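INTERNAL AUDIT FORM
Audit reference: QA-55
Scope: verify that the stored structure record matches its stored sequence.
Auditor: D.O.
Record contents follow.
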Amino acid sequence: MAMQGSAIAQQANDPKFNKMIKDGFKAEGIAGLDRIDQDATQKFCSDPVFANSKQGEKD
């Protein structure tokens, strides 16, 4: 599972990946484009250094 998190975290800083996500997301109801942008906690949890640490591997 940690490997999947690392792959996602590494792609998150890729401009092409970000564009693909934003272009493919369709705002509907309360789910707006702001759902794509990570808050500070989500960014921390997506950090590949954290994700690959002992603390990040905990369930």
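Auditor finding: record pair retrieved intact. The mean pLDDT is 76.
Action required: none
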